[in-house]
Amino acid sequence: MKSQRRASSNDERLAWLRLARTENIGPTTFANLLARYGDVRAALEAVPRLASRGGKALQLFDAGDAARELEALTKFGARMLTCRDAEFPRGLAALDPPPPIIFAIGHVALLQRDGVAIVGARNASALGLKLAKRLATDLGAAGLAIASGLARGIDSAAHEGALATGTIAVLAGGLDVVYPPENQALYDSIAKQGAIISEMPLGMAPQARHFPRRNRLISGLSRGVVVIEAAEKSGSLITAGYALEQGREVFAVPGSPLDPRARGANRLIRDGATLTESAEDVLHVLRPIIGHAFQEPSHISTAPTEAAVVEAEADRIRASVEEKLGAAPVEVDELVRQLGAPPAAVLTVLLELELAGRIERQPGNRVAWR
């Protein structure tokens, strides 16, 4: 079901936040609930019953806590954007699944502009920093917003190069937590001249598990990702991996084989990334797609009028679904194929088990017992 981009009422926004904050509900589960029920308030109301059918009671996020969080956001000068809001970034809305909500400060309109992400090493060389800043300046002058993660090194240089034209910082912690602390002045400048976004609540310090989610947003915002000085197994390569999954372009700046910081970028080039030495190398690839709409995913939905029928079928196949699941992840499509059951019924069983906290989602649309 295609999302309808529109404004939402206050009680809707409260329901969005409560659903997103409820235990066991990640972006995929949120998207499945929204696809099935259409309205977030109906989905929120259905969650306890679905979790109970999956074998465990589930407590919804408290309405009072959600209201206080929204009030704190307003006092901080931030906004909550849902993936159905007209101002939600087009690139993020096109992800499968999209982040249900993000929080933003600064010039929110900048999130609608076509962009390029520039990421790389925290311990970057002087030449790497110089090139990152030059690329950001030149790509910004060409009308592109520059996204990065406000980290030391390449990220900071990219933000600095694009301050005058528009830059977006994506945080792994809450909007009010500056990390690293020495980037406070840069953070303040971006808040005034650009935009800052996060999925995390105010006051939350960045944790290791948050950075992959941040990296997914960085690539999702952008038409392409430029990698400068990335070591093997670095966060920058994770961002590049997300870009490939999302159908974005990947660019990499070559470096010396003797420099460990160049190994990741050099490997990306060997694997097909565009060798990049200047902004023109990026623009040559992106010009044909700049301005075109992102391709939004479609989701299998179960109409509310069919819910009773689907749940009856789900009850019939529940034991078979549980038997097929194991500690090793299995693709949902493969599970449907092996069972020969209606996809909507299989998805319903998985949704109920996930809400009950008995299974977990893994990359590649795979599921496994917890």
Can you walk through the features of this model?
With 370 residues, the chain is α/β, with parallel strands linked by helices. The protein is 45% helix and 14% strand. It has 15 helices and twelve strands. The strands form two sheets. The chain has a nine-stranded mixed sheet with strand order 1-2-6-5-4-3-7-8-9, sandwiched between helices. Strand 7, helix 10 and strand 8 form a beta-alpha-beta unit. About 2% of the residues have low confidence.
Poorly predicted runs: 299-305
Shape: globular
Which structural class do you get from the secondary structure elements?
alpha/beta
Let me know the average pLDDT: 94
Number of strands: 12
Helix content: 40-55%
Write the H/E string, N to C: HHHHEHEEHEHEHEHEHEHEHHEHHEE
**Distance linking N and C termini:** 29 Å
Largest sheet: 9 strands, mixed
Count of runs of 4 or more consecutive helical residues: 15
Quick structural gist:
This protein is of the alpha/beta class and 370 residues long.
Q: What is the secondary structure topology, with strand pairs?
A:
Layout: H1 10-21, H2 27-37, H3 40-54, H4 63-76, E1 79-82, H5 90-93, E2 101-106, E3 115-120, H6 126-141, E4 145-148, H7 154-161, E5 167-170, H8 184-193, E6 195-198, H9 211-221, E7 224-228, H10 235-245, E8 249-253, H11 263-270, E9 274-275, H12 279-286, H13 307-324, E10 330-331, H14 332-339, H15 343-355, E11 359-362, E12 366-369
Parallel strand pairs: 3-4, 3-7, 4-5, 5-6, 7-8, 8-9
Antiparallel strand pairs: 1-2, 2-6, 10-12, 11-12
Helix pairs in contact: 1-3, 1-4, 2-3, 3-15, 6-7, 6-12, 9-10, 13-15
